[in-house]
Write a structure and sequence with these properties.
single chain, about 190 residues, alpha+beta, 6-stranded antiparallel beta sheet, about 20% strand
Length: about 190
């Protein structure tokens, strides 16, 4: 384990997506209902296990020469009603070398309340389709139209078509104006 407390768990993975066991000196061990065996993580809760499996698979399939297309963070509800955020994070090589050669961190953490994602808010308040919301979210995170299109595995022309539709639905005319709208807290 890289880090663990009552509400957070971070697991280090090497460039092949295999677990790296790291126990920081002096770090107290706490218990968590999590089983790690044979390069698999299980919690006993189907939805959360599926989210974790998706993240692990993406890390294992990542080619180190190409920036990884890791799945976006996902929220799963536990049997006892808690919300767990699951995400895979790419580590800078220098930082990874400091922590046992890790290339990825799989983070599983409890969030205090179910988060309504920005994409969900965009879909409901702006009337965007799921793909348009994904595309707009990538733009709001600073990606270009080309980068967002590549992430969604669509052509740049299709990406521009989505952008035109998003402009129409949001009554915006420039990407800067759209990004400002999307980054408003109330959206």
């Amino acid at each position: 384990m890289f880090f663990q407390d009552e509400r957070n768990l971070m697991i280090a993975l090497d460039s092949d997506g295999k677990f790296i066991r790291i126990d920081p000196p002096g770090h107290p061990k706490t218990s968590i209902d999590l089983r790690i065996s044979c390069q698999r993580i299980t919690t006993g809760q189907r939805l959360l296990d599926e989210k974790i499996d998706t993240m692990l698979k993406a890390c294992r399939e990542c080619n180190s020469d190409i920036p990884p297309l890791l799945p976006p963070p996902a929220i799963a509800r536990t049997k006892d009603g808690r919300s767990m955020l699951v995400e895979a994070l790419l580590l800078p090589r220098e930082l990874g070398e400091l922590i046992g050669g890790a290339r990825f961190i799989l983070a599983v953490r409890e969030v205090s309340s179910p988060l309504i994602s920005r994409k969900s808010r965009m879909r409901h308040s702006l009337g965007l389709t799921a793909t348009e919301a994904d595309f707009a979210d990538f733009l709001a995170r600073g990606m270009s139209v080309k980068e967002a299109s590549e992430r969604l595995c669509i052509s740049v022309w299709t990406g521009r078509s989505h952008l035109r539709s998003i402009f129409q639905k949001t009554d915006t005319h420039r990407q800067g104006e759209l990004i400002a709208l999307l980054n408003q807290e109330k959206l």
